[in-house]
Amino acid sequence: MAKIFISYKRNVDLDASMAADLDEALRGEHEVFIDTTLQVGENWADKIQNALKQSDYFIALLSEHSISSEMVIAEIETAYHLNKAQGNPKILPVRLNFTTPLVYPLSAYLNPLQWAVWNKHADTPKLIAELKQAATGGKLPVDEAQHAEMVTAPTEEAPTAFATPSKLDSPEGTMTHQSPFYIERAGDGLTMQALERTGVTITIKAPRQMGKSSLLNRIMIEGGRRGLKSAYIDFQLIEKSALDNPDVFYRQFCSLLSFEFDIEDRTEAFWGTPLGNVQKTTNYIFKHLLQETQGAPLLLAMDEVERMFSSPFRSDFFSMLRSWHNNRARGGDWTRFNMALVTSTEPYQFIADLNQSPFNVGEVIELGDFAQAQVVDLNQRHGKPLASDQVEQLHKLLGGHPYLTRKALYLVASGRTTFDELMQNCCEDDGPFGDHLRNHTFRMSGQEKLQAGFLQVINHQRCADEHVFFQLRGAGLVRRVGNDVLPRNELYAEYFGKRL
User: Fold this and answer.
1) Based on the structure, what is the number of domains in the chain?
2) Rounded CA gap, 96 and 214, in Å?
3) What pLDDT is stored for residue 155 in this prediction?
4) Ramachandran class of 421: left when φ > 0, alpha when ψ lies in -120 to 50, beta otherwise
5) Residue 429's Cα: distance from chain center in Å?
6) Which SS3 state, helix, strand or coil, does residue 410 take?
């Protein structure tokens, strides 16, 4: 009897009915966890975390709705990292009448896997049989041609001047560089100006869902236009075991650079020298990578680098990046080596010697929430679904939160809800922002200090523990105004004031 976790998008008829059908079919032979079994008053976030850790198999129902669900994405991300760390749960993706290629980061988590395909109700018995076989140690069947078609990167559409409901972009995930819904902020201009120089370090700092990865994407595309050869490393995809072991990490890092810059991987040859990991990695960059790229300017883009802050050798790693920045002063090939780093957490609390930090040199960009004028602009790009007074109310509720503002406008412009319904149900678990709010609750599960610190902010406008403050700010939940620490917006204050 295997332990099986079913992940799906709540409040969507197809997704919920399929989850219920699979639960009923599998429960007789296996121990199944589905969130409908949670009792009123239970700490659902802790229950989900524990169920994921104990599961042998993780069934992810992928539909046009679930792929943009923050909770589904968070559950898939958690299952992915648990699988890398402990071997379980095995992930079993199921496509529900959905063949569109996945976008990042789901594509990185799921594209290498085999999956089952369901297109109509007549497919249900076949799907159940396939999942039962997989849950006893077998594999899901795979149609190679169909799989190849589904993992092909989607093409970008040409931008339009203003949106119509048929041309709306989903607010989820990294935005394409051509999206008509991308709002440029002061940081955009500064980063593009930085790329005009030779040999730069760019740091983008902001909480989650502020558009950091979208800006990084634009930097890489603009760099390509200027002749830079780019490599992209997402630290989310580096296993915890590597982050704990420098001998494993630095080897993987150099191999990743080789793959991304499309050069021969000679990591093992360089590891034969009697030097430390930092010296070996630096030599690999200078004596191999820079030589093999034949004079071309390079851009190393690193996303989610805050994952390194928990590493025992973080100081050595960040000192190494700082040394690469400093090496440009010597001239030569180092001046061709550009770096862009993205972090959602304030790095200074993790680096003892700021003279060895790469985050306070070069161009440092801090992204902020949208001003009301930018929300007015975004409303216009959505075809003006909100009146002027409604734009003001929305900005007051969300404080200009970029993702939530886009989501609200998307929902109203596409006819999925009205503005009055959105405002009335904004703090409900099944409301327009319920998925987002539940995801924050899920990520705080089991972290009593964070929960207590956030309650202190909501009730008393202060946070006694500075480390907790930085964590809450990195999560995008609080902001500092003068000597006060405040909830980031009215939505968070009301929802978490009741739920915590």
Assistant:
1) 3
2) 28
3) 40
4) alpha
5) 22
6) helix
